[in-house]
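Please predict the structure of the following assembly.
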Amino acid sequence: MLYREAGQFKTTYAEDMAIFPIRQDRIALGILLGIAFIGVPLLADFDIWPFGSDYLLRAILLPFLILALAAIGVNILVGYCGQISLGSGAFMAIGAYSAYKLGTGVHIPLTWLDFAISIPPLPVLLAILLGGLTAAVVGILFGIPSLRIKGLYLAVATLAAQFFFDWVFLRVSWFTNYAPSGSVNAPTLDFFGLNVGTPIERYMLCLIFVTAFAVLVKNLVRGNLGRQWMAIRDMDIAAELIGIRPLYAKLTAFAVSSFIIGVAGALWAFVYLGSWEPLAFSIDRSLQLLFMVIIGGLGSIMGSFVGAAFILILPILLNLIPTQLGVPLSTETITHLEFIIFGSLICFLLIKEPHGFARLISIGKEKLRLWPFPY
Amino acid sequence: MIALGQFLEVLIGGLMSGVLYSLVALGFVLIFKASGVFNFAQGAMVLLAGLALVRSLDLLVAWGFPVWAAIILGIGFAAVIMAITAWLIERFVIGPLVNQDALTLFMSTIGVTFILEGAAQMIFGSDAYPLRLFPTDAWFLFENLFPGGILVNKLDVWGGFIAGILVAGLAIFFERTKTGRALRAVADDHLAAQSVGIPISWIWFVVWLAAGLVALVAATVWGTKLGVQFSITFLALKALPVLIIGGLTSIPGAIVGGLIVGAGEKIAEVFLGSHIGGGIEYWFAYVLALAVLLVRPQGLFGERIIERI
């Protein structure tokens, strides 16, 4: 009854091509954005549970937003262009460390030339975006093998990036400004004179980034470039025959995806962690991101958000349940049980709906459209 | 000037540890050949097999069994555990997911990895347990040729020996037995195999069982070398470049790839690592795999991938 497009006539091409052609979708999105942009800060301001406590913002919403952004990046590569990558963690690390270097000032002494390249510390926003750009350049480099190999072979090739950069950021102390412990602190988050410090400010910052990139990507994948990526994903040889350049399509996918993942990495380090070590971007992070994309739905922006929420919140819930029930188990057993339940749920979801939550959502919409009749 | 003796020592040590990588890689190849599943859970299976073996050994010895009987019973027990695991995986994960694309199957094996790691440690404990099945002392060879001789670990020789037997056994199994032939048929085309009456779920169970037993063998050797502990699961990741270099579908490829990776990373670590900062073992194998992929996308021994529209 509520979800029908009957009577919504589209009289212009622009209306027909809108991202959300159905009015109810637009209203739902508007409400969602309203809650995210106005509701949450208001609730936090008035200390209304659960938004009054820092815990929800700091431990759930902040990582959710940033990882959703990273998942969107991974989704471009894996979901839209069909190139499996296990190196997303490395690209997050590249974004984080290059943003850190640019934010604290770069100094490269070239002793044999009696010359040194020095860049003064850049503003944080610029550093974050340039960090993403650095990740994009490296992404292009590591995307070159994708021109010859694909599928699981490519997955292993991207693992090379993961392990190589793990090592680089651990061993090459230039990247950590020679910090003895290997852990580095983010510069103060100063955006045009506005100091972002409290959880709600950090939340707003990430929300702005995520919204901007989500809109950008949604439009990108609807356009010429996105269609090229999808043609390559569906069958690369056929795509080549109808005149799509695999070199251009694949490398742009790597570049855009790595850029977004790099920005997410910089945000993760600067806004969420504050101080971090290379371990924050290990292979586990890559697998986590891949899970988000697959559970959420390949080739779906909405799915990236749902997947990120699921993968992030599930372990937290699993952690809470035994203490809430008062089950007398040792922490070790609980950890192992968490592993088992998490693994089982992943398998269960993959078996029941291999296309992820995005598919479930579209099935739900279809059902809602016909409601109260079954068909 | 690098001493020849040192070089040989590093080379032999590398080759031998490469054999151990091959043991893990073999399990991957078996499953990939037969079901097209890229089995991320192989490392977790090694952990499970190792834990089952070492814990049952400890228990049996504590009950007063003689050591030889304890070893036989312990290996038997671990094999049964692997059989149960294989059946469960086939029945509840791989079976229902038949005909899904490779990425979904791959992710499901990561799910299996979580389950196996959690279950293995919950049932058998999560400490590091020492395993003493093979001698671990060293030999010194060619002491008359090189000053100090060449140090060779006896365990590595045992590992090589066992890997040799395993490969021979698998080759005979694949080429000479009925089940082995059925396996190869399923690997070629599982729909066609099914239509000529090959029981496909039974074949997949056999494959996962074989991979489980290979994991058990790998666990005995790796467990003796490092002790049975959680970090053994990371071996699975080391086996990936071995697979890529050797080719995903080739059993000899897994062995040769393992040798190349083992020798390559040891030599690189010793002779190159000192110049650019140590620890390059950590990524060298992957970059080597990347280089091989650029030249030969299907690996050294893999089947050429021909695509049609």
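The longest strand of chain A covers residues 106-110. Residues 236 and 316 of chain A are 40 Å apart (CA to CA).
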